[in-house]
Every structure is written in C-alpha cells, then in structure tokens.
Structure to design on (178 residues):
C-alpha cells in the first residue's frame, strides 16, 4: 500500500509542477518531435518565396516574360504595352486578366535579382507542365520583349540565354495556351 501511495504522490507532484510551469509560460509541448516536425514544415512552406511554388505554365510564362522586361531595372511603357498585348492575345485573357497577371508578376519578381540568379529553381515546379510548343513560345516572346526598345542589354541577353538553356523543346504533343 505504501508503494501505491508513493507512486500517486509522485504523479501528483509531477502534474503540479507541469501545471505551474504552464502558468509561468513554459510549455513542454514544444518538445514533442511530431509537433516540431509539423511546425517546421509549415514554417518552411509559409516563409518560402511564392515564385518557387508556381506550377501552372501560364503563370510561369507570365513571370518569365515580365522578368525579361524588368531584369534591367524598371519596365518601360513600351515593354508594359507589349506585355499587356501578349497577355491578352497570346494567353487569351481579357484586359482585366492581363493587367492582373502583369501586376502579380511584377509584385512576385520584386527587384528581379532572385529570378535572374535562380531561374532554374524557379521554373522547376512548372517545367514538366510545359509542352514543347509552349516552351518555344516563351522563348520567342521573351526575345520579342527584350528587343522591344531596340537592342537588348547584356543582362537581358544573359537572361535569354539561360532561359533558352532551360527550355529545350522536345518532340511531343502540340498544345496552345488556352
């Protein structure tokens, strides 16, 4: 009987200590490895730059085309008009959709340093979804944007060469954007 009373006393003492620690703001639930793994996975997903999670070819193409114009600095009005026209005609969107696509792409790109430095990593989730015709179209449209205001800059030429290295069109199914 004295063993049972000793065990109950120990359990009560441990529970009382845990209660007081919780009142003091110390949570021992953080020591749970499953909870820690789940929180770490969520934090990684939450803190990741959204340009690394684009899977749709249309969104990735819009991002690349906008980056072609923005890689040298700010987008000129001529490049903006050309981008909006491409988003409307080539991607079969309305004027409102084209403006929203340009605004979201510009916001995601930011200063343009990250997309210039890690283009392959950005296009990795969406690369498998591109058809050869779409990949070829992205390269042609990016060249069109780069040479919109005359001769392309060295930074744009470098960006275009890395883009064309990434998109090696294979033979396969032909599919339009829409």
């Amino acid at each position: 009987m004295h063993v049972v009373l000793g065990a109950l006393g120990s359990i009560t003492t441990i529970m009382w200590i845990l209660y007081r620690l919780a009142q003091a703001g110390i949570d021992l639930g953080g020591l749970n490895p499953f909870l820690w793994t789940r929180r770490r996975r969520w934090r990684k997903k939450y803190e990741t730059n959204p340009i690394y999670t684009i899977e749709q070819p249309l969104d990735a193409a819009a991002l690349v085309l906008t980056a072609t114009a923005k890689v040298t600095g700010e987008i000129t009005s001529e490049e903006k008009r050309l981008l909006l026209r491409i988003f409307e005609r080539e991607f079969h969107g309305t004027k409102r959709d084209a403006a929203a696509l340009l605004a979201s792409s510009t916001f995601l790109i930011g200063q343009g340093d990250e997309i210039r430095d890690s283009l392959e990593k950005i296009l990795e989730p969406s690369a498998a979804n591109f058809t050869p015709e779409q990949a070829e179209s992205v390269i042609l449209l990016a060249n069109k944007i780069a040479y919109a205001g005359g001769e392309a800059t060295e930074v744009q030429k470098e960006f275009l060469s890395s883009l064309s290295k990434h998109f090696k069109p294979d033979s396969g199914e032909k599919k339009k954007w829409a």
